[in-house]
């Protein structure tokens, strides 16, 4: 259990750190875009070499695909609700969408992390790296957008602290659930994380990176993908 708490905190802490960094200074848009692009590439590698492969090995394609559909639909519905609320207040939904994405993909990601620790599979290096390098720019970019939209600093910090705590607790829950759930549940959790991530990447993270970094986004994304894929294959 101690390992689950430790890794849960490690994986979730960049969410809060990023929000605090956004409060301390105004980060160059281009740098944020490049980091977001790198994180997007790392998440793509995590989906391909960690979540998808592991899900197929655990229970075959059907539970994994069910999880992918549920994750994608959950993120899509949550993001549309957020868009509608933001439209009423005439504010930018970009920061809020990244926060929703961090929550919807962070919970199943860290649930998978906790299950893996308890079952003796160890920690997926590429998955942890992808979580770390995507959580930091997600929270910096989101917190920056939310601050520009007029949200108070205290509310921004509380929002990301809550997201970080929930995600960290998911690792502990996954560790505790291992004896009670089968491989099908683990495959569905993998798929849910992958589905939420894919929709978030296309709808929010990559467009946000493209807007900020322009022509550098594609290169940063490929470098992030190659780095995380190398880590996964090396492990």
How do the strands and helices of this protein lay out in sequence?
Elements: H1 2-24, H2 29-59, H3 61-89, H4 94-119, H5 125-148, H6 153-177, H7 183-213, H8 217-234
Average pLDDT for all residues: 83
Structural class label? mainly alpha
Strand content: under 5%
Main β sheet profile: none
**Rg for CA atoms:** 17 Å
State the end-to-end CA separation: 23 Å
Low-confidence stretches are none
Number of strands: 0
Amount of helix: over 70%
Globular, elongated, flat, extended or rod-shaped: what is the shape? globular
* Oligomeric state of this protein: single chain
Number of helices: 8
Order of helices and strands: HHHHHHHH
Total count of domains: 1
Explained architecture:
The protein has one domain (2-234). Helices cover 88% and strands 0% of the residues. It contains eight helices and no strands. Helix 1 runs parallel beside helix 5, helix 2 (29-59) runs antiparallel to helix 3 and helix 4 runs antiparallel to helix 7 (183-213). The two termini are 23 Å apart. It is globular. It is mostly helical. The mean pLDDT is 83.
Question: In short, what is this structure?
Answer:
This protein is an all-alpha fold and 235 residues long. Helix content is 88%, strand content 0%.
Highlighted features:
8 helices, 235 residues, mainly alpha, 0% strand, globular
């Amino acid at each position: 259990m101690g390992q689950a708490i430790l890794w849960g905190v490690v994986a979730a802490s960049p969410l809060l750190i990023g929000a605090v960094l956004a409060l301390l200074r105004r980060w160059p848009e281009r740098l944020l875009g490049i980091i977001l692009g790198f994180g997007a590439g790392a998440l793509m590698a995590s989906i391909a070499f960690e979540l998808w492969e592991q899900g197929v090995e655990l229970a075959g394609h059907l539970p994994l695909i069910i999880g992918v559909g549920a994750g994608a639909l959950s993120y899509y519905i949550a993001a549309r609700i957020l868009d509608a609320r933001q439209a009423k207040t005439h504010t930018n939904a970009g920061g809020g969408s990244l926060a929703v994405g961090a929550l919807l993909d962070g919970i199943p990601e860290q649930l998978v992390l906790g299950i893996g620790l308890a079952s003796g599979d160890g920690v997926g290096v590429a998955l942890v790296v992808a979580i770390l390098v995507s959580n930091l720019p997600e929270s910096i970019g989101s917190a920056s957008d939310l601050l520009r939209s007029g949200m108070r600093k205290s509310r921004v910090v509380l929002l990301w602290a809550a997201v970080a705590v929930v995600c960290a607790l998911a690792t502990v829950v996954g560790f505790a659930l291992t004896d009670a759930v089968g491989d099908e549940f683990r495959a569905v959790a993998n798929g849910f994380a992958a589905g939420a991530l894919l929709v978030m990447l296309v709808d929010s993270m990559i467009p946000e990176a493209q807007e900020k970094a322009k022509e550098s986004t594609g290169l940063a994304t490929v470098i992030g993908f190659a780095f995380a894929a190398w880590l996964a294959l090396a492990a």
